[in-house]
Specification:
With about 60 residues, this protein is an alpha+beta fold. The chain contains 1 helix and 4 strands; from the N terminus they run E-E-H-E-E. It has one domain. Helices cover about 25% and strands about 35% of the residues.
Length: about 60
Amino acid sequence: MANIVGIVTTNRESVGGGTPIFFTQDAQQLQQVSHLLEKVLDCAAHQVNDALFIIVNRK
């Protein structure tokens, strides 16, 4: 079963809920933070759209 362990976005109005949310300034920072979290958490980063990544643990 997969679990969403984090959300990374540039658009504050597009997300909500109980999962940790990381807000970034621009698309470059969005990619950097997403890939860093992917490595640190040993998870997978999936780009949903230009302003949103989800970090998923599949273990």
